[in-house]
Amino acid sequence: MKNTSYKVHVQKTVQEEVDSVNIEQGAMLVTDSALFMGFNDEQVKVFPPKSNKMGLGWARYDDTQYTTLNPFTLQPTIEVVLPNNAGNKIETNLNAGISYYDGISKKVQAENIGDVYVMTIVFKAIATNSSDCWIDMYLENAGVSQYERLGETFYIQKGNSVEVKFHQVFQYYSDLDFITNGSQWKMTSNKNIQIYDIIYFIQRTNNNAI
Fold first, then answer.
1. Domain of residue 38, residue span
2. Same domain flag for 70 and 88
3. Which residues of 57-91 are buried (b: 16+ CB within 10 A; e: fewer)?
4. CB–CB of 196/67 below 8 Å?
5. Would 5 be classed as within a structural domain?
6. How far is CA 5 from the centre of its chain?
7. Same domain, yes or no: 19 and 62
8. Which residues contact 123 (CB under 8 A, 6 or more apart)?
9. Fewest CB within 10 angstroms: 69, 87, 115, 206, which?
10. Is residue 117 pLDDT above 80, yes or no?
11. Is residue 2 part of a domain?
12. Same domain, 116 and 24
């Protein structure tokens, strides 16, 4: 491996100067606490990142209310919020100033406008009559953004009173509407269906504040 022949000029300065100038492409400014570089007419903070591990993290939220012995019943054509009280949760690797989900309001939450998240939803279901039986699930926002376009239709095909396991992965970004109102996963079905053992796993894959 050979060394590059290019030399980069790094200018020692203070934060006030960094905030008041446009750094030229490839040039660098260093303060006592950070290193900045000019790239595509923007000032990029190279080191250190604004938050731990670049603010990327994950969390898991398990519902403890509805189990095999106490399932939640979907009734035909009635829209409901997918229940998850987050009775058990793991947030040690969140790396965020908020929770990704609130078990009280049943709302999925985001920290910054432009963040990107990947959310896995797991649950089990049983239908007494599984003939042509389906569940529609979609993300609904309290504001004007059409997050309900993010959804899935699940079909129960194993047979009557046979447990079916669902595992679905969704990707979404957060706008101002999402930040302000949060979003809820909602469901409708065409028959009586019991669901239980609901788990949310949410991972932030882009922190737009960085």
1. 10-47
2. yes
3. bbbbbbbeebeeeebbebeeeeebebbbbbeebeb
4. yes
5. no
6. 43
7. no
8. 82, 166, 195, 196, 197, 198, 199
9. 69
10. yes
11. no
12. no
Q: Are residues 19 and 110 in the same domain?
A: no
Calculate the alpha carbon distances from 68 to 41, 71, 72, 143 in Å.
57, 6, 9, 35
The identity of residue 159, as a single letter, is G
Phi-psi region of 8 (alpha: psi -120 to 50; beta: other; left: phi over 0): beta
Q: Look up tokens 């993300």; give the residue.
A: 139
CATH number at residue 80: 2.60.120.1120
Closest CA relative to residue 196, chosen from 165, 151, 169: 165
**Model pLDDT, residue 4:** 55
Please report, as a single letter, which amino acid is at residue 192.
N
Rounded to whole angstroms, how far apart are CA atoms 203 and 62? Answer: 15
pLDDT, one tens digit per residue, over 100-116 is 999 999 999 999 999 99
How many structural domains compose the chain? 2
